[in-house]
Amino acid sequence: MVSPGLTPGLKGQRETVVCEHNIAQHVRKFSTPSMIRLMEGAATQAVQQYLPEGHVSVGFEVNIRHVAPADIGATVVAYSELLEVDRNHLAFRVSVYDGERIIGEGTHRRTVIALNR
User: Fold this and answer.
1) How far apart, in Å, are the Cα atoms of 49 and each of 13, 52, 95?
2) Over the stretch 1-41, which tens digit does the pLDDT of each residue have?
3) Which of 4, 19, 76, 106 is most open to solvent, judged by the fewest CB atoms within 10 Å of its CB?
4) Of all helices (H) and strands (E), which one includes residue 66?
5) What contacts 59, CB < 8 A, 6 or more positions away?
């Protein structure tokens, strides 16, 4: 069961500073897995308060492009927008920026599950 407050248009945001813990060591830039984790965090943040008690959302599909690098020390911000709710499946548009420059974009899907399953 999904809450009635869970409607398209909900937005989320997460940010991080690029550092030794989230770079691809061979190029010393913000890594793609770290970018995806930030996108998923923004999507989670957008909907968590609208989920029924005892429920969480989990990611099951990521379709993104990492289009530009971000250097150590940069503050990168992920944005998400809920596009569609289909039963317990949620579809998001996601993007990540380094200042005004987009460094990643795409779509992400999550499903709502009960924790006691």
Assistant:
1) 14, 8, 21
2) 567 789 999 999 999 999 999 999 999 999 999 999 999 99
3) 4
4) strand 55-66
5) 40, 43, 108, 109, 110
Spatial strand order of the sheet with 11-17 comes to: 11-17, 75-86, 89-98, 101-114, 55-66
DSSP string, 71-103: BTT-EEEEEEEEEEEETTEEEEEEEEEETTEEE
Contacts with 39 (C-beta within 8 Å, 6 or more apart), sequence order: 62, 64, 78, 80, 94, 95, 96, 104, 106, 108
Q: Are 72 and 23 in contact (CB under 8 A)?
A: yes
Percentage above 90 pLDDT, the chain: 94
Spell out the alpha helix ranges (H) of 1-117: 32-47
Please give the pLDDT value at position 29: 98
Q: How far apart are CA 25 and CA 64, in angstroms?
A: 21
